Amino acid sequence: MWKRRLSSCSSNATAIKLLKDKKWDALVIGGGHNGLTAAAYLARSGLSVAVLERRHLIGGAAVTEELVPGFKFSRCSYLQSLLRPSIIRELELGRHGLKLLRRNPSSFTPCLDGRYLLLGPDSELNRSEISKFSIKDAQAYPRYEKQLEKFCKLLDPLLDSPPPENLRSVSSFNDSFKDKLHKLAFWANTLRHALSLGQKGTLDFVDLLVSPASKVLNRWFECDVLKATLATDAIIGTMASVHTPGSGYVLLHHVMGETDGARGIWSHVEGGMGSVSSAIANAAREAGAHIVSKLMLEDSGSVNGVLLTEGTLVHSSVVLSNATPYKTFTELVPNGALPEEFSRAIKYSDYSSGTTKINVAVNALPQFQSCKLNHPNAGPQHMGTIHIGSESMEEIDTACQDALNGQPSRRPIIEMTIPSALDKTISPPGKHVVNLFTQYTPYKPAEGSWEDPTYRKLYAQNCFNLIDEYAPGFSSSIVDYDMLAPPDLEREFGLTGGNIFHGAMGLDSLFLMRPVKGWSDYRTPMKGLYLCGSGTHPGGGVMGAPGRNAAHVVLADLKKQAKVLWTQLNDYEQPEMSLKSL
């Protein structure tokens, strides 16, 4: 175990001594990218902040690990686009080591019949590629992207601010009045943006939010391969089918993010996704590696600090948890400390996951038999996300139904990326890192177990065999691999149920409903305890918005508390001043 804080710590003993010898202004449980982001903003506001991390390195699911000598894997998250521009700008992440590598093309779908589809930021390429399958779809595609971009502009202001949650405590008339004005301004602004769409645009937006992705895509396009390629955005990291109502909303991820100001462009990060966390940690100048056991409580039910497993008490009246809501409230908070209704809502939230991540070291690039372009090294087919087994939406649905019936998909849906095609720092010369984001895999299979090495090997080999159908010889190029099934993601990274978003991203779990109704503003029933992870608004992905928003809520609460204290001191001193005046 190791620890770094505002000053460097040379040993674990030094780190523990630093932690326990003072009362911190704020503690952050979990050194994932959201926790680091929250810590950065709090520290920049002058607070003393410590980050406590269970693992041997910071970053949570945004980490780079060299599991095979010479090969550095983005072990969980593997692409960047959603990180909020405000965070990149305000924390000056470029100066702190963040370097984004734009992908062009951004998508490649090989077909078993010998055809393929490339998509990317180049509109002429998109028109040419889609025309191979459907001229009508080639004409519709720019209009589809334009509509999604318009909807994203409507959502953008919501991402960078806390939801307008109701006041829970008795407040002064002034505070109550200010809160009502704030909510009025929020909803007026939201309504203004909605009205800018017009009635048809608003209806289209609502339709997108509540419809299955299949319905949305069938209305726009006729080509199976194009629809399936786009549909993967709607089911990524879930146990949902393309026919699941509400899955259409996640299609917005196709254009929601950006790279260096270019909307909808996903990028690799030089050095792997751990470089995102490292840049934020550098900006915050802090991070940690201690195992958190329980939160300490005062008699009033407010937070008083963190108790580490080795018995060290770390004191603070403000604690932010970057852990999942389930882990925070069922494992870190003592029993009986929370309202029963709240605990029940947290316990029965949806944490299901169908994701298994396989990180592969290979000695050669995969050669796709449908796309034999004349490139001596990496070609355009290697630059973006490679969609394997996604030639129709029905294939995706069939794979999902397998998992819902308790078995891993017989023909998994695989998103393959090869970051070493652009990033020369993560693999030996001539060799490559391959990320396989695979679906669907149930957390508890009806037959077999992820704890069984043979069962795990069979699933991995099934994925490799499927890739061989499109790129013969892929299996024989494998040097070694690392596999993370849902229980592994839970055990290794604290992702409840293996859910990469800290909880499902359905319409019943977003905005004012995330993590549960009535507690969407990062505060919790325990005074001084806040959530700052992906289980809060606006949700999962390497976005940083939950951490930034939570930090602003904490700072607002501390400012309010200081104002109340100042008023009380003035009230206390007033009689004394009156006596002196006599």
From TrEMBL:
Gene3D superfamilies: FAD/NAD(P)-binding domain (3.50.50.60). Transmembrane segments: none annotated. Pfam families: NAD_binding_8. InterPro entries: FAD/NAD-bd_sf. SUPFAM superfamilies: FAD/NAD(P)-binding domain (SSF51905). Coiled coil: none annotated. Belongs to the carotenoid/retinoid oxidoreductase family. This is Amine oxidase domain-containing protein. It comes from Dillenia turbinata. The lineage of its organism: Eukaryota, Viridiplantae, Streptophyta, Embryophyta, Tracheophyta.
